Amino acid sequence: QVQLVESGGGSVQAGGSLRLSCEVSGATVSTLCMGWFRHAPGKEREGVARIRIDDHSYYADPVNGRFTISKDNAKNSLYLQMNGLKPEDTGMYYCAAQWDLFCGTWPNKFQGQGTQVTVSS
What we know:
Mean pLDDT: 97
Strand content: over 45%
Number of helices: 0
Order of helices and strands: EEEEEEEEEEE
Largest sheet: 7 strands, mixed
């Protein structure tokens, strides 16, 4: 069974940075299409970034240029470096994964419990 455990959330002021981590068990990140979602109160869940098995990455427009998704095969983990945080980045952030060679859509087969990010102005 694939399990995802997120960590690294917290409260920061606008302009600050956070690095989210997602530890994977039951599968190896090198074989997975992986991504990050976020869900803010009153808003729909939205994809933030995803990464293919060949490390090609895709970013949603609101975070492009500020967030960086990466993975460490040796640690079997996924990361999201978030710089230049804005209040509108506030929300629960979830790690997600699925087996998808092309990774053309947001992964959703496996998901973690989430980690809260709060950005104050």
